[in-house]
Amino acid sequence: MNRPLVITDCDEVLLHMVRHFRAWLHDRHGIEFLLEGNPFAQSMRRIESGDQVSEEDVFAFLNSFFDSEMPRQTAIDGAVDAIVELQREADVVVLTNIKDHFNESRQRQLAEHGIDARVFTNQGPKGEALKRIFDEYRPSRAVFIDDIAKHHASAAEIVPVVGRLHFCGEPAIAGHVPCAFQAGHAHARIDTWDKALPWLLQHLHGEPS
Question: Over the stretch 158-170, which tens digit does the pLDDT of each residue have?
Fold first, then answer.
């Protein structure tokens, strides 16, 4: 029988991103980014003019951030130790929504934090990518971890056999993001690794809680 499998997102699950993106936008580009749960394109305004940043510019800033600012990102408290512990009993891979050409730099970035894991890049809802990973590994059990509710909805529709943990490790936005557990698309909502790790181990080896 194959080992259990953990498929985890990166930003706001393993590494802080929005807090560093926000500081970079302010310091380098004169943009205020309000972490209040609104879509990115509705949360950014140019400080001097007050103009809202266009959606096209938002994505350009995101790509520029990942091009040069990955070293800014810091680990979510407890994430590295939790992944190391999970790897004792399961395969762990990272499914991250960034452009494909960032795959190697993301894998290198995680390794520098102490997380040695295969990285899969994706754009859009994650259900189809999750199914491809599941079909490749054919695990005895599997769990998917992500901070965005729509990815859990996609996973629930396309590969419902996979357990789903909604996890947002950034306190500034955790209270604002729509909850996949409340929507019925995740099996749990936990935002700290000290509580998430026991749940994950139980789900991988016992009955879901």
Answer: 999 999 999 999 9
CA separation (Å) from 93 to 28, 142, 152? Answer: 33, 11, 17
Q: From start to end of the chain, where are the E strands?
A: 5-8, 31-33, 44-46, 91-96, 118-121, 142-146, 163-166, 188-189
- Does pTM top 0.90 for this prediction? yes
Note the maximum CA span of the chain: 60
CATH 3.40.50.1000 residue ranges for the chain? 5-16+74-205
Span 5-16+74-205 CATH architecture: 3-Layer(aba) Sandwich (3.40)
